[in-house]
Design goal:
By secondary structure, the chain is of the alpha/beta class. It is about 30% helix and about 20% strand. It contains eleven helices and 20 strands. The strands form five sheets. The protein has a ten-stranded mixed beta sheet, sandwiched between helices. Strands 14, 16, 17 and 18 form a four-stranded mixed beta sheet that branches. Helix 3 crosses helix 4 and helix 3 packs parallel to helix 5. The longest helix has 21 residues. It is globular, with a radius of gyration of 21 Å. The structure holds guanosine-5'-diphosphate, 6-O-phosphoryl inosine monophosphate and magnesium ion (MG). The site of guanosine-5'-diphosphate has 23 residues, from helix 1 and strand 3.
């Protein structure tokens, strides 16, 4: 059984936790897009792990993890992440972590350019994570980027690096910013390349060998459907395909091998960064932040929060072919008297049950809510759906009805153990 996990909202739905949970029954976990803009928190056996580039299957010994060709890989960020994980006792070797030769690199000038472009945008800034993601994917599409495949040709790597650093320095110089030191970056990159090289292999043939051997693959999505470069709230999106297609192009595993797509959604909605958010709500934001929840794992920024929006999630089921939902953070709603669901958008005189055709209209949409009674009971100890209060079960049933797919997995707390299967 090969399963793609996608975010059905604006990221941070709890994909890492769900991937970690499902890895028990899988053999290979593949990250196929995004970079270290992602932050996936997994809590297992009381220990908290934050993953950025390393797939969330890494906590299970004897499972293989792949960083696919569709990922943009910051070699220094990855080495730091590996150090942190090893410091927490996670065993990582070339046996359980493979890196695709096709992955493009994120280098320090990408971060510099990301910052610069954001400040040039002024009021229209995207609110990026500042990890250099857009500029790195830009180089990929422009066909000038450096790739992991260049690691085994140091001369060629340095030649390409010199051209890119020179290009970036012209920009930094023109705005009076400090220029990058080619020698310094070059030495650091060669050192990182040497350290990462044992993990580098042809991950396409490797994944296909695993399929032939009857193994189960799990594709870990990063970001979410509405941050997708094609289907998201453009331009307030990331620079990759976060929807199901990204898992295919970013891994070299064709659709005929995909058996199931699971969409991960929160029981409410969050978003980090700028852009439209129809069901955003200050009171629910204040409540969740007051509980110490909803601060970003990558940048520490407070996430914007709002009610569950079935316009978003039902449309995400179409775009991704979602078969089942994994709904996380139900416990976040435990204390509320009233819980709302945004079921459609009002735009001018029209009622929309799918996102507006023109992205500029998103901002003009007003939410139309239905109201549900809260359960006002702690759900964090529930271990089966039957343990849930009746009002919580009704809330889930309504979400299933609105989105047209079953809630197959439920999260009632951040720990691996707080995961229920229908
Ligand atoms: P990802 O980027 O989709 O992997 O999600 P993040 O890890 O960035 O954000 C999800 C946050 O919710 C993390 O802090 C998780 O530990 C936490 N989380 C996931 N599922 C649950 C849940 O069911 N209940 C609670 N309370 N926290 C959860
Ligand atoms: P995970 O995998 C939430 C958002 C940024 C910004 C926009 C573009 O943890 O769900 P970028 O740095 O990618 O150019 O920023 O996308 N963003 C995320 N929001 N979760 C993420 O990843 C995100 N990765 C990027 O906040 O709005
Ligand atoms: Mg996250």
């Amino acid at each position: 059984m090969n399963t793609v996990i996608v975010g059905a909202q604006w990221g941070d739905e709890g994909k890492g936790k769900i991937v970690d949970f499902l890895t028990e029954d899988a053999d290979v976990v593949i990250r196929a897009q995004g970079g270290n803009n992602a932050g996936h928190t997994v809590i297992a056996n009381g220990e908290k792990y934050v993953l950025h580039l390393v797939p969330s299957g890494i906590l299970w010994p004897d499972k293989t993890n792949i960083i696919g060709n569709g990922v943009v890989l910051d070699p220094f960020g990855l080495l730091e992440e590996l150090d942190t994980l090893r410091g927490q006792g996670v065993v990582i070797s070339s046996d359980n972590l493979a890196i695709s030769e096709g992955a493009h690199l994120v280098l320090p000038y990408h971060r510099g350019l990301d910052r610069r472009r954001e400040s040039n945008r002024g009021q229209r800034k995207i609110g990026t994570t500042g990890r250099g993601i857009g500029p790195s994917y830009g180089d990929k599409v422009d066909r000038t980027g450096l790739r992991v495949a260049d690691f085994n040709q140091p001369d060629r790597l340095m030649e390409k690096l010199a051209a890119k650093v020179e290009e970036a320095n012209l920009i930094f110089e023109s705005v009076g910013e400090e220029k990058l030191n080619l020698k310094e970056i070059g030495d650091q990159l060669l050192d990182a390349a040497e350290k990462l090289s044992p993990h580098v292999r042809n991950c396409v043939t490797y994944a296909h060998e695993q399929i032939q051997a009857g193994k189960s693959l799990l594709f870990e999505g990063a970001q979410g459907t509405y941050l997708d470069i094609d289907h998201g709230t453009f331009p307030f999106v990331t620079s990759s395909n976060t929807t199901v297609g990204g898992a295919i192009t970013g891994s070299g595993v064709p659709p005929k091998f995909i058996d199931r797509v699971i969409g991960v959604t929160k029981a409410y909605t969050t978003r980090v960064g700028e852009g439209p958010f129809v069901s955003e709500d200050e009171a629910i934001s204040d409540m969740l932040h007051g509980m110490g929840r909803e601060f970003g794992a990558t940048t520490g920024r407070a996430r914007r929060c709002g009610w569950f929006d079935s316009v978003l999630v039902s449309y995400a089921t179409l775009v991704n072919g979602i078969d089942q939902l994994a709904l996380t953070n139900l416990d976040g709603l435990d204390g509320l008297d009233e819980i709302k669901i945004c079921t459609s958008y009002k735009l001018g005189g029209e009622m929309l049950t799918a996102p507006p055709p023109h992205s500029r209209d998103w901002d003009q949409c007003e939410p139309v809510y239905e109201s549900h009674p809260g359960w006002k009971t702690q759900t964090t100890e529930a271990r089966t759906f039957d343990d849930l209060p009746a009002a919580a079960r009704k809330y889930l049933a309504r979400i299933e009805e609105l989105c047209g797919v079953p809630v197959a997995i439920l999260g009632v707390g951040p720990d691996r153990a707080q995961t229920l299967v229908a």
